[in-house]
Write a structure and sequence with these properties.
With about 450 residues, the protein is mostly helical. The chain is about 70% helix and about 0% strand. It has one domain: Amino acid/polyamine transporter I.
Length: about 450
């Protein structure tokens, strides 16, 4: 039987998370956030960092206790086999695919300073195919590409932040909380959540990471710390240099133009078109880094769903030679392309936000479910302040979802119901009672394996 190959250490796992966290989201979403609530966008990013920290604690415990491919889906499946586990995996997969589409369309946006095309998917679709093929070739090639793009991005962003400091105007930070309507801050917090979920992408690759029990919790915390620094520093620099009205003028009413806000800040802070060119290159690197990371994570979640017979077993196959989830990669690619054809960053980002907010709330709840189901399970890393931190993680993740745009909620609910429909069809049709028992047996076998490690 084909198996994953452990070839990623702490550095690779951390850069995978950082590449998704400090990726295109900082370009695509930060300008929009400032345009809506002004300097209070800094507060929104700070609050969501705390919310994400609660979820990160849950992921550290679950990743160390259950270092298996599939990430949040596998955790939920072990905690509660059946519809609960499937629904969690479905939401995380849909969130990942929608994020892939978001960053593929953002890639087209990133090329605007160089040339533009009348139909963004013409540029987005080829890059989705290219990075799907890179992922198919194996984790070593994927990791090398990810590391190069992520390090380039961090270097360029740090350069912009440093260059912005002498040109910051303190009056741009006042008034701090008076921009927008009262609920706009909650709306902004909801849609920037996509920026912070990058650390979640580390755990689906557990079976390709060396010493995952130790490596993954450390990589998650480093990723979140580095990401929070760059988010806060970049947004503060954008507000300080260009001001709320300056950013709003660039972004306008279209979410698709948000990525150009940071390019404009670079023009102002680095004195001219050369600074803008540097950040435009960073924008391209960011979109590719995020796209690569989300294809890797989403394909592993889909593989785990097929491996556990929630989908036909064909969907859970690994390539014998490369050790990559071939079905997961190419089905993720196909659905990503379908979402790219919607040609709306705002729509696909909204689907990703809703799916991740609800899906991660279910993963956080798995900490509580598994503590009750398997109190003696070896947990090398535990959630501090249990159960209150885990409960807060559930409440804060799910509690932000209702404040997303109505379109995001409707599309997200529709995608969730589609997943429930798939599960019911499998259960009543192809997925016989015999296969349901096999699914439960698979969960028990995984638990037995984890118990033997104690």
């Amino acid at each position: 039987m084909a198996e994953f190959k452990r070839a990623m250490g702490l550095g690779g796992a951390t850069l995978l998370g950082i590449g998704a966290l400090v990726g295109a989201g900082i370009f695509v979403l930060s300008g929009r956030a400032i345009a809506i609530v002004g300097p209070a966008a800094i507060l929104a990013y700070l609050v969501m960092a705390v919310v994400s920290l609660l979820t990160a604690f849950c992921y550290c415990e679950l990743s160390a206790a259950i270092p298996k491919a599939g990430g949040g889906y596998t955790f939920a499946q072990v905690a509660s086999p059946g519809l609960y586990g499937f629904a969690t995996g479905w939401l995380l997969w849909i969130g990942g695919v929608a994020a892939c589409a978001t960053f593929a369309l953002a890639f087209s946006d990133a090329l605007t300073p160089f040339f533009s095309v009348p139909w963004y998917p013409a540029l987005a679709i080829p890059v989705v195919v290219l990075f799907s093929l890179i992922n198919y070739r194996g984790i070593k090639g994927t990791s090398r590409a990810q590391n190069l793009m992520t390090l380039s991005l961090l270097g360029l962003l740090f350069l912009v932040i440093l260059a912005s400091v002498p040109r910051i105007k303190l009056e741009h930070y006042t008034p701090f909380l008076s921009q927008g309507r009262p609920l706009d801050l909650l709306y902004v917090m909801g849609f920037i959540y996509l920026c912070y979920v990058g650390f979640e992408l580390i755990s689906p690759a557990s079976e390709e990471i060396v010493e995952p029990e130790r490596t993954i919790p450390r990589a998650i915390m480093i990723t979140l710390a580095v990401g929070t620094f760059f988010f806060l520093a970049t947004v503060a620099a954008m507000v300080g240099v260009a001001g709320h009205q300056g950013i709003k003028a660039v972004v306008g009413e279209e979410a698709a133009a948000s990525g150009l806000a940071l390019v404009e800040v670079a023009r102002l802070s680095l004195l001219g078109r050369y600074g803008a060119l540097v950040v435009a290159v960073a924008f391209i690197a960011a979109t590719l880094s995020s796209l690569n990371a989300y294809i890797l994570a989403a394909s592993h979640v889909f593989h785990a769903l097929g491996r556990d017979a929630n989908f036909p077993r064909l969907f859970g196959l690994l390539d014998e030679r490369k050790g990559t989830p071939v079905s997961g990669i190419f089905i993720t690619m196909a659905v990503t392309i379908a979402l790219v054809l919607l040609n709306s960053i705002e729509v696909v980002a909204g689907i990703a936000d809703f799916s991740y907010l609800v899906g991660l709330a279910m993963v956080n709840a798995s900490v509580i479910l598994l503590r009750r189901k398997e109190p003696d399970l070896k947990r090398p890393c535990k959630v501090p302040g249990y159960p209150w931190v885990a409960i807060l993680a559930v409440i804060t993740s799910a509690g932000v979802a209702p404040f997303l745009s109505l379109d995001s909620i409707l599309y997200g609910v529709g995608a969730s119901l589609a997943g429930v429909g798939v599960y019911i069809l499998r259960r009543k049709g192809i997925l016989s009672s015999r296969r349901l028992k096999r699914l439960e047996r698979r969960s028990e076998e995984l638990l037995d394996d984890l118990r033997r490690r104690r």
